[in-house]
Specification:
single chain, Thrombin, subunit H
Length: 111
């Protein structure tokens, strides 16, 4: 038997029956119902209802609630038939401000 080594970096939570979610365009021009099969800190595996042909999957939303209040920004990792692997896009970390009375090392190095 040929076994492929696991490439995932984070532990995944599997949903035996799946969870109904929606993917939708950033600009709201398209929407698809999906079943989330598993999820991790960095991404998810979805089974998509309907065609993905012609959809811009560079960046989109994964809506986790019917009201749209729980969502994640995603990008396509891979597509295989009706299955879609997505990676969650993390918000850029805010730059840290130096503490009062301290000069950042970047400024000291420029002197």
């Amino acid at each position: 038997m040929n076994v492929t080594p696991e490439k995932r970096k984070n532990e995944r939570v599997n949903f035996q029956r799946g969870v109904t979610v929606q993917i939708l365009a950033i600009d709201g021009t398209w929407r698809r119902t999906c079943t989330m099969r598993d999820v991790s800190e960095n991404g998810a595996l979805l089974t998509v209802e309907g065609s993905l042909a012609g959809l811009e999957l560079k960046e989109f939303f994964l809506s986790l609630s019917s009201t749209g209040l729980a969502y994640r920004r995603c990008e396509k990792s891979w597509v295989n038939g009706d299955q879609l692997g997505v990676t969650f896009i993390k918000a850029d970390a805010k730059p840290r401000r130096p503490r009062k009375g301290r000069v950042p090392m970047a400024i000291i190095n420029e002197m």
